[in-house]
Amino acid sequence: MSALTDTAPAGGPAPDAQGTTSPERSPGPAPAVEVTVLVPARDERGSIERCLGSVLSQQGVDFEVVVVDNGSTDGTTELLEALAERDPRVVVVPQPVPSIPVSLNAGLARARGRWLVRVDAHSTISEGYLAHAVERLREGRWAAVGGRKTAVGRTPVGRAVAAVLNSKLAVGGSTYHWGTEEQVVDHIPFGCYPTELVRQLGGWDTEIANNEDFEFDQRLRRQGEILFDPALTIDWDSRETVGALYRQYRRYGTGKPGVALRHPGSLKLRHLAPPLLVAYLAGAAVLGLRRPGLALAAVAPYAAGVVAVGSRISRSAPEGADRAAVPLALAAMQVGWGVGFWRGVSTLLRRRVAKGDA
């Protein structure tokens, strides 16, 4: 049988509501379910109920929800435990190490589903999402399928941030942000996979703290194609301040050099644009110490470009968005990613030096 066909993972003791096995209640292997929905969560009290509500209302498939509690301290743990008591489909797996890939692997180890669907804790999935994902995976053609991730803001600045994240002008080749046509892609953010295939690949790389999903997809593509299907839709909570967006994209950028080192072919010209921009801006800042006028002239074209593109994006911003924040969000995303990239390079170099001294 091909790794992409309908294969069931091995069964195991049935987890109880708190995510632990109970030999007395379930002495034999638990029957597999069609789908395991895997949700890593850390301090998501404000969004986890909406997220799980959208999952638990799904119809047409037999599923379980494995929520990996990644050391929450805001009350998320207690909320999850209460929900698991009410609904036996919910399994809570404690995992205190602050790591997304470690949490994903912990959930993978407990998964009983033939198919594995990752859902972000601050997102909601559309009606029929699981059934449609399973239908596409059953075709046997795809190593993974995924859908369109639409950013949603809840404050005026958050809506401005969402407008940037949903714009092709801002995110370029990241089809899952704006795509409307079915196509083969190199990455999807919250994938749906054959569980056994994920296990064969060893799950997510715990040495890649950020960009772990992109790195996984590069290994997955050696097994088959990844399908972007816009019929699968995900509403995803955007950051609500420009500063939070900057920190988010700085974190994304930090993981990129490590992924590029493992998969050089995955690095595209668009990935190099933000770090080159940051290097250029840093050079202008140094120049500004002695020639401020010249430095301003050097930065002016970028500033004008951000304002112009921001103005175009603002036209499609949702009602109630702070349109003045759109160019700031655009710059924060680009500069944050670029700064993160150089931090990632610095981290890799320090590790190389440390290994050389060892």
Automatic annotation (TrEMBL):
Using the record's annotation, list all stretches that form the Glycosyltransferase 2-like domain.
36-149
State a single Gene Ontology molecular function.
transferase activity
Extent of Low complexity compositional bias:
1-21
Q: Which Gene3D superfamilies match?
A: Spore Coat Polysaccharide Biosynthesis Protein SpsA, Chain A (3.90.550.10)
Region entry Disordered: which residue ranges? 1-31
- Entry superkingdom: Bacteria
Q: What is the official name of this protein in its record? A: Glycosyltransferase
- Give the species this sequence originates from: Quadrisphaera setariae
